[in-house]
């Protein structure tokens, strides 16, 4: 009986050894950097690094764009306030009289003329 138990124990140990050998070969192929999952993991890791850098640049750009937009909004609000004051001051002007109607049709005109170019090659 002991002999059968020893034989079964030896067979189990041999089977476990074969299983471990096959498993180590598969794991070695799995972890190969060039062709196996190791290569895929390395490529994905590089892509994650690139995306992290791109995300950082995008966040910096968005922050600067937000600051520029806030500045432009502030300037636009200031200009709108000045325009409101100007429009309100126009309401304070007196209405033109009938005597001023004749001169109201006449408008001053400004004419700009370009200077003549010097002759001789241009």
Sum up the structure in keywords.
122 residues; 2 domains; mainly alpha
Give an overview of the whole structure.
The protein has 122 residues and is an all-alpha fold. The chain has 2 domains: 1-30; 33-91. Helix content is 75%, strand content 0%. The chain has 3 helices and no strands. It has helices spanning 2-30, 37-91, 98-104. It is rod-shaped. It starts with a helix and ends in an 18-residue tail after the last helix. The model has no long low-confidence stretch (mean pLDDT 84).
Layout of secondary structure:
Elements: H1 2-30, H2 37-91, H3 98-104
Please summarize what this structure is.
The protein has 122 residues and is mostly helical. Helix content is 75%, strand content 0%.
Largest sheet: none
Total count of domains: 2
Shape: rod-shaped
**Pairing-aware structural class of the strands and helices?**
mainly alpha
How many helical stretches?
3
The rounded distance between the terminal residues' Cα atoms is: 119 Å
Q: How much helical structure, as a percent, in the residues? A: over 70%
Helix and strand pattern: HHH
The residue ranges in which pLDDT falls below 50 over 5 or more consecutive positions are none
Strand content: under 5%
């Amino acid at each position: 009986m002991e002999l059968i138990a020893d034989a079964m124990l030896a067979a189990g140990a041999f089977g476990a050894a074969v299983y471990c050998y096959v498993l180590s070969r598969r794991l070695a192929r799995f972890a190969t950097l060039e062709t196996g999952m190791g290569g895929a993991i390395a490529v994905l890791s590089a892509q994650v690094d690139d995306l992290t850098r791109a995300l950082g640049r995008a966040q910096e750009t968005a922050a600067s764009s937000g600051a520029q937009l806030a500045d432009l909004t502030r300037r636009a609000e200031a200009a709108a306030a000045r325009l409101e004051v100007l429009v309100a001051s126009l309401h304070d002007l007196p209405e033109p009289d009938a005597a001023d109607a004749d001169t109201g049709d006449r408008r001053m005109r400004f004419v700009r003329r370009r200077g003549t170019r010097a002759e001789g090659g241009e």
